[in-house]
Design goal:
This protein has 101 residues and is mostly helical. The protein contains four helices and no strands.
């Protein structure tokens, strides 16, 4: 692994820990609101996607899974970036919900 990949992995581990701590400190009502918010966001994106976009996205996920299974450095880097982006989105949504409380 390169230093960049190790740094990315360390970032993911730090953000994952922060996510766990933030979720543990959240109230049940905040978690319910989070699920609703993320669900409606995903639903909104899916609703406005064309069938071709949905199929292309599914194909990208399949290719990424195959790259990771084949231990491709590019696949690992992409998976790390996607994972980090997902964690950041959840943390951002939680922060917004806490500000509204």
């Amino acid at each position: 692994m390169t230093d960049q990949n190790e740094t990315s992995l360390a970032d993911i581990q730090r953000y994952h820990q922060l996510l766990e701590e933030t979720l543990a400190a959240s109230s049940q009502q905040e978690l319910i609101q989070l699920v609703h918010l993320l669900g409606s966001t995903i639903g909104h994106v899916r609703y406005y996607q064309t069938q071709e976009q949905k199929e292309a996205e599914a194909q990208q996920r399949i290719q990424l899974t195959q790259q990771v299974q084949q231990q491709s450095p590019e696949g690992f880097a992409t998976m790390q970036a996607v994972t980090l982006a997902g964690i950041k989105e959840v943390l951002s949504a939680l922060q917004i919900l806490k500000q509204q409380s």
